[in-house]
């Protein structure tokens, strides 16, 4: 509790992605990117236990690539894998409406009313993401949850920036409309 | 298609409400530190040598260096089991030496490593001059980091040698100790290594005779076989070198060994080349801080079991019977249960009679409240209740829940008792003793004996984040009260960076009233929390604690309801 929970719970954009591309050893890669991978999975899943499992899958997959390839931009690759695997897990498990009460408990860093509303909104947003086509959900998460630029998303997904823009715009429009409707209770 | 692109360009990344609030909320998703530690530990276990990346790899990683030495020792142990092998004599010879020194001959330069199971020290000096010196006896890591290119001076960091670091790089020490004891080494020193071949041969090179032991290893499910060739001096029976050769064509690596005399044993990081004028960043707890940590730990241990009702109200004039929400808490040792109670319209509490015992009064009043389970901890695992509900109508809060594993508690441990599992303000013991001011790899702790601000006669512990962590507050300040069993009287967590529209850059918890437990430690009974110093928007926490409540174990089972 106290400050470590505050560390973990204080709102804010994800850290800027490190510039360093290929780490010297596996241990370095893990330590540099574990928080990013776990964070990306947590943001999509809203569930720590599942996020841990997804993180393990991501590092296992990354490990296979790491041993064989020297041309990978690891920050993008790992974030992309984490988001992709987390979205995939949500779809496979058919997540139901849920609420992570940890954030609903007022802590040392957030007001209770704000937090309770925020929890509801975040869970609604995740549920609506489940309804989007996979590519749109992935692009949306990479930009708005992981802070990647359009060109970086294009690199990570190996698609054209224009395709990213299209997917992003569609995703935003759908999410915005569905979220507003859900809050109005329509 | 063009419309989408144009719209996107004009949009400039802005999102409408409520989507923007939803994204903000997702960005605030917690990442429990213990989860991160587990992910790092499991992913690091995959570690092996990365094959042939000469253009980018500058120095052989520390962990690899130590692991290679470990391989030597594993080999030593296994050969020792062969009765006809002269390796037994090699082992015997190595047992007489306190220190092993090795030099890795690499394309990028030499790298030195020292190992002493007797003194429980291992150290590495990298080709760029950097040094890591681990003293496992005193659990201290000293690390000399050279200045980056263009900068002046380096830094020496002294920090506690954590079990995580030991697990990552000290397994070779354990293997060597096992070998010295004559035991068969286990497989932990070199994960997933299988012995596929053994060969002993005599060779002559430049007129000098050597005995070579060729030890074939397969790592994991790799096809390639790595041959560890240990060359032994037949006169001393001591290994002189070890070479790593892989069948998949990667360049071989060689470790040249020697056994330094006592005058050349490294006593500290300076003996390995760190300049004595280097600035020291000492993160080892001072005696005074050590005392504080002990007292805080005692406070946690002595707090005792209880049932509590926490009333959360908004505004300076609010009263506990006008709370926004009530939190019902039961704690028995490391077990606890948390439920939320909502008093929904048209029900409202009237002011209590004068001199009433508030815990009992509130308990009775809340019988008509809507109860929502939140957390249950069975003493180890914390379970989160997931409740199906709709945002628009709180009346639809349903008692049906599913339970998901959230994490584990760490009462009395190195860091924070309930980190990542429940909020500090919910549990009176967490508010009083939840924060253990232990310096870590990612934060420093400095102690101010006579702070000029905050409550009088308190010790101030300032925790600063040294390694950027997503969402981490840069500075956390805790005022511990020595006159009242070192419970936290006041705390401030702050960050100079703007966080978000409705977020806080400065969170202050001030204990306005407190009480003593039957066991002699203290806890808050009223806490005022403000955000960014907005006093008129303060939140108040009122703690009503009963230390004599009956606490059957069934309370801590994963059931939807405890009371009604």
Query: How big a fraction of the residues of chain B is strand?
Result: 25-35%
- Helical content of chain B stands at 10-25%
Mean pLDDT of chain A: 70
Class by SSE composition of chain B: alpha+beta
β-sheet strand percentage of chain A: under 5%
Largest sheet of chain A: none
* H and E order of chain A: HHHHHHHH
Summarize the largest interface: chains and residue counts.
Answer: A-B, 92 and 115 residues
Separation of termini of chain B?
58 Å
Q: What best-fitting shape of chain B do the alpha-carbon axes yield? A: elongated
Number of strands of chain A: 0
Structural class of chain A: mainly alpha
Shape of chain A: globular
Give the quaternary arrangement of the chains: heterodimer
Number of helices of chain A: 8
Separation, N- and C-terminal Cα atoms of chain A: 38 Å
Characterization of the model:
The complex is a heterodimer of chains A (186) and B (564). With 186 residues, chain A is mostly helical. Chain A contains eight helices and no strands. Chain A is globular, with a radius of gyration of 17 Å. With 564 residues, chain B is of the alpha+beta class. Chain B has ten helices and 25 strands. In chain B, the strands form two sheets. Chain B has a 13-stranded antiparallel beta sheet with strand order 18-17-16-15-14-13-25-24-23-22-21-20-19, with helices on both faces. Chain B has a twelve-stranded mixed beta sheet with strand order 7-8-9-10-11-1-2-3-4-5-6-12, with helices on one face. Chain B is elongated. The N terminus of chain B is likely disordered. At the A-B interface, helix 1, helix 2, helix 3, helix 5 and helix 6 of A face helix 1, helix 2, helix 3, strand 16 and strand 17 of B.
């Amino acid at each position: 509790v106290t400050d470590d929970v505050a560390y973990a719970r204080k709102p804010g954009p994800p850290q800027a992605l490190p510039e360093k591309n290929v780490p010297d050893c596996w241990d370095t890669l893990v330590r540099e990117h574990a928080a990013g991978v776990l964070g990306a999975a947590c943001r999509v899943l809203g569930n720590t236990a599942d996020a841990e499992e997804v993180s393990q899958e991501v590092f296992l997959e990354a490990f296979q690539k790491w041993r064989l390839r020297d041309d990978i931009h690891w920050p993008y690759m790992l974030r992309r894998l984490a988001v992709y695997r987390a979205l995939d897990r949500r779809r496979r498990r058919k997540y139901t409406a849920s609420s992570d009460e940890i954030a609903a408990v007022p802590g040392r860093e957030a007001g209770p009313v704000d937090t309770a509303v925020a929890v509801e909104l975040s869970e609604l947003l995740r549920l609506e993401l489940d309804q989007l086509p996979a590519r749109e959900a992935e692009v949306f998460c990479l930009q708005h949850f992981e802070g990647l630029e359009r060109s970086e998303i294009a690199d990570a997904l190996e698609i054209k920036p224009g395709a990213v823009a299209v997917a992003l715009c569609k995703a935003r429009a759908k999410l915005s409309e569905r979220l507003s409707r859900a809050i109005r209770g329509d | 298609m063009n419309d989408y692109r144009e719209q996107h360009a004009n949009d400039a990344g802005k999102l409408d409400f409520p989507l923007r609030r939803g994204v903000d909320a997702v960005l605030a998703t917690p990442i429990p530190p213990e989860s991160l530690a587990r992910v790092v530990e499991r992913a690091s276990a995959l570690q092996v040598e990365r094959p042939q990346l000469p253009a980018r790899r500058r120095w052989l990683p520390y962990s690899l260096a130590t692991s290679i030495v470990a391989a030597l020792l594993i080999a030593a142990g296994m050969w020792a089991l062969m009765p006809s092998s002269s390796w037994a004599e090699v082992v015997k010879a190595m047992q007489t030496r306190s220190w092993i020194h090795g030099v890795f001959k690499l394309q990028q330069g030499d790298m030195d490593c020292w190992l002493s199971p007797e003194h429980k020290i291992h150290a590495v000096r990298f080709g760029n001059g950097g040094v890591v010196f681990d003293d496992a006896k005193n659990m201290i890591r000293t690390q000399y980091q050279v200045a980056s290119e263009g900068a002046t001076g380096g830094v020496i960091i002294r920090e506690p040698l954590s079990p995580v670091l030991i697990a990552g790089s000290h397994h070779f020490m354990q293997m060597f100790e096992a070998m010295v004891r004559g035991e068969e080494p286990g497989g932990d020193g070199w994960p997933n290594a299988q012995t596929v071949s053994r060969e002993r041969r005599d060779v002559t090179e430049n007129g000098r005779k050597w005995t070579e032991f060729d030890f074939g290893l397969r790592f994991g499910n790799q096809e390639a076989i790595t041959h560890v060739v240990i060359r032994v001096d037949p006169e001393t029976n001591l290994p002189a070198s070890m070479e790593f050769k892989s069948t998949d064509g990667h360049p071989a690596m060689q470790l040249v060994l020697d056994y330094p005399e006592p005058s050349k044993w490294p006593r500290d990081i300076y003996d390995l080349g760190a300049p004595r004028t280097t600035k020291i960043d000492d993160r080892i707890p001072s005696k005074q801080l050590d005392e504080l940590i002990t007292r805080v730990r005692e406070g946690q241990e002595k707090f005792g079991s209880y049932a509590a009702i926490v009333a959360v109200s908004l505004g300076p004039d609010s009263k506990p019977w006008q709370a926004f929400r009530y939190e019902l808490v039961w704690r028995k040792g490391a077990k606890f249960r948390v439920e939320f109670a909502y008093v929904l319209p048209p029900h409202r509490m009237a002011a209590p009679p004068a001199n009433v015992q508030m815990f009992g009064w509130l308990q009775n009043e809340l019988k008509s409240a809507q109860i929502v389970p939140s957390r249950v901890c069975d003493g180890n695992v914390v379970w989160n209740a997931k409740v199906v509900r709709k945002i628009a109508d709180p009346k639809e809060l349903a008692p049906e829940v599913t339970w998901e594993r959230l994490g584990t508690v760490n009462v009395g441990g190195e860091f924070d008792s309930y980190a990542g599992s429940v909020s500090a303000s919910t549990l009176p013991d967490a508010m009083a003793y939840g924060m253990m001011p232990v310096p870590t790899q990612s934060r420093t702790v400095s102690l101010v004996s006579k702070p000029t601000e905050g409550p009088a006669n308190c010790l101030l512990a300032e925790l600063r984040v040294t390694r950027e962590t997503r969402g981490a507050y840069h500075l956390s300040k805790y005022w511990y009260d020595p006159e009242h069993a070192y419970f936290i009287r006041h705390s401030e967590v702050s960050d100079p960076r703007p966080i978000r529209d409705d977020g806080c850059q400065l969170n202050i918890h001030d204990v306005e009233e407190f009480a003593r437990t039957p066991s002699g430690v203290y806890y808050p009974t009223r806490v005022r929390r403000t955000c960014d110093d907005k006093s008129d928007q303060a939140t108040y926490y009122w703690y009503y604690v009963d230390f004599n409540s009956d606490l059957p174990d069934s309370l801590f089972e994963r059931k939807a309801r405890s009371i009604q």
